[in-house]
Each structure stands twice: as C-alpha cells, then as structure tokens.
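Write out this protein's structure.
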Amino acid sequence: MTALLKIIHVARKELGLDEDTYRALLLRVTGTESLRAMSEAQRAAVVKEMTRLGFKVRVAGKQLPQSFKPWSRMIHALWKKCHQLGVIEDRSAPALRAFCKRFVAHGHDGVVVDPDMLSYDQASPIIEALKKMEARGAAQAGGVR
C-alpha cells in the first residue's frame, strides 16, 4: 500500500466520511470512485482536497513521503543547491512556497503554493529560474556546474 493510500484512509476516518460521501468526494476530484483505479497524481489530488476540508497530515517521527513527481524533486534539489551556493538566504519550506507563488499565483494573497502539488507546466518556469540562479551562484563561487 502506498503512502498516499494510507493517508487517504486515515483522512477519511478523521473527517468522519461515510461511504457515500467518501465515494462522492473521490468521483468529484478524480472522476472515479475507486482508489485502486487512480494514478498517484489523482491520489495526491484527493489528499489535497481532504486537507482543504480540514484533514491535517501528521508526521509521527518520520519525514513526509518524498514527492513522486520528478519536477517537484528537481525544485527541492535546486532550492537546496542555490542555498548552498549562497544565492538563497532562507532555505525554509515557507520561503520556497513564497518563491513558487510568485510564478503560479502572483497577486493572490490567500493562495498557498506547494511545490509538491504543482503540475509540470507550473513547475517548468520555476525550475528554469532556479537553474539560472544556480548558474549565477556557481559562477560567483568560481566553480563550473
């Protein structure tokens, strides 16, 4: 059972969703009522919707599962590298979300942009900007990428 499946089952229980309400939520978010028929991206969308409804993902001494999207992992890796090169001062998750928000939802104050929930099209300009920042940082450090 994947981590997302476990999270969905816990969220369903914590939100107190009966069978009909739960299936309606799955159908509304993904177009299918079956978790097994869903892709990982669809399951992630279900988790996102459940968190919007009030579910809070808790970590019991473990890190959250690594994102399954390669572009999301790339954003995190580039962010870390830019921090190591001194291009970025604040390496925190809120700082990364604020950076991503400038590309995805600039001017929308109430929107939180999570790099792990971005589509490829949303992530691409962020990745390109981070690559340019990384190259500048490497050039300033005298190193070559």
